[in-house]
Amino acid sequence: MTKPSMRTVALSVVALAVAAQLVPVNRDNPPIGVGIVAPDRVAPTLRRACYDCHSHETAWPWYAYVAPASWLVARDVHEGRRHVNFSDWGAYSAPEQQRRLLDIADEAKEGGMPPWYYAPFHTGSALSQADVDTIVGWAESASAQLAGKP
Length: 150
Prior knowledge:
Blueprint (H helix, E strand, L loop, with lengths): L5 H15 L22 H7 L1 H4 L14 H15 L10 H17 L18 H18 L4
Helix pairs in contact: 5-6
């Protein structure tokens, strides 16, 4: 059996890259339901740092249209919306909102959001310590209110 030439290998790689572009990717932004109402001190931070993955207001970057990056971006957005979706906040029951608020506080405290691989490409998403403190304070307070605690 003969060894494939460099030209054959290169053409095969190009053909695979072109074929990968044909794989459909769901880059949707469904209609916004009853969104979250956050205080003025919190809402801008949520929009800047969270909404691309946790709402129906995703700003799809250019690389979300180029496979294989498009597959990863779409998966991350849909997974993020599944965990917390600020655009459908009103569809959650009060206990569910309470749980999600506590999850938000925990993720912010632990530095889990935004993910380490996301922030370098979206510099506006990085959270300062003041941002973290604001989000945690709001989320814990809102959760306590839903639980009927002062």
